[in-house]
């Protein structure tokens, strides 16, 4: 009994440590150019990487928490120079928060659930990391654009804003982002780094999700 209690205690300690480290990494990325690489008026978002690592090492509860942290930092970006975020904030702070927060939380949760399901069929613990990481990035993009289109569908931009964004409405911006280079680059980088780092952390700590 005592041995089991000690093992459970070590497991909780490792989980808290990994979660704290990933949260710290996420915050550093969110408030430096590492997490939001500006491409014109839009940003290439890499903050999903710590969320993916949390999903493949600690499971959906931790990745949902990290996704929520990501969402809060994304909303803060609306106040600190993100061009599109500033437009959304001026239209409705509540809807802007929902667009920033809910998709990231759900992306973290679903990424963890998908990876857990894949790992059960991946005896060698290999391809599931690539699939989970790719799904995490794609879910973040699809859910964010979906919420953006749903909550701000009728929002049109001024001529000055349209010139900067390359679109005359939120719906046009959604199509532009979906068809542009941001989403493929995000997916590629998050898949490569998320799977490599996640598998390395899991192997080092013995934290393979069950």
Q: How would you portray this structure in words?
A:
By secondary structure, this protein is mainly α. It has helices at residues 2-30, 48-58, 60-77, 83-91, 93-119, 127-151, 159-165, 170-179, 182-205, and strands at 36-39, 42-45. The protein contains nine helices and two strands. Strands 1-2 form a two-stranded antiparallel sheet. Helix 6 (127-151) packs antiparallel against helix 8 (170-179). The radius of gyration is 18 Å and the shape is elongated. 76% of the residues lie in helices and 4% in strands. The longest helix is centred in the first third of the chain and has 29 residues, at 2-30. A hairpin with a 2-residue loop joins strand 1 and strand 2 (42-45).
What percentage of residues falls in helices of 4 or more residues? over 70%
Helix count equals 9
Tell me about the largest β-sheet: 2 strands, antiparallel
**Gap from first CA to last CA:** 22 Å
Strand order of the largest sheet: 1-2
Mean pLDDT level:
87
* Global shape: elongated
> Strand percentage, roughly?
under 5%
Q: How many runs of DSSP E, i.e. beta strands?
A: 2
Runs in which pLDDT lies below 50 for 5 or more consecutive residues are none
N-to-C series of helices and strands: HEEHHHHHHHH
Instruction: Provide the gyration radius in Å.
Output: 18 Å
Helices and strands: which structural class? mainly alpha
């Amino acid at each position: 009994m005592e041995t089991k209690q000690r093992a459970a205690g070590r497991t909780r300690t490792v989980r808290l440590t990994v979660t704290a480290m990933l949260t710290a990494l996420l915050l550093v990325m969110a408030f430096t150019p590492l997490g939001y690489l500006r491409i014109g008026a839009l940003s290439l978002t890499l903050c999903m990487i710590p969320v993916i690592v949390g999903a493949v090492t600690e499971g959906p509860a931790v990745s949902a928490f990290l996704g929520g942290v990501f969402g809060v930092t994304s909303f803060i970006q609306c106040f600190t120079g993100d061009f599109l975020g500033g437009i959304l904030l001026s239209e409705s702070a509540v809807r802007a928060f929902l667009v920033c927060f809910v998709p990231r939380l759900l992306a973290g949760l679903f990424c963890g659930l998908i990876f857990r399901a894949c790992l059960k069929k991946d005896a060698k613990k290999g391809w599931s990391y690539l699939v989970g990481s790719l799904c995490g990035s794609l879910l973040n993009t699809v859910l964010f654009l979906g919420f953006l289109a749903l909550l701000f569908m009728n929002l049109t931009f001024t001529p000055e804003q349209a010139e900067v964004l390359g679109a005359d409405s939120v719906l046009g911006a959604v199509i532009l982002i979906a068809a542009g280079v941001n989403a493929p680059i995000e997916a590629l980088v998050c898949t490569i780094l998320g799977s490599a780092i996640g598998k390395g952390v899991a192997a080092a700590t013995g934290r393979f999700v069950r």
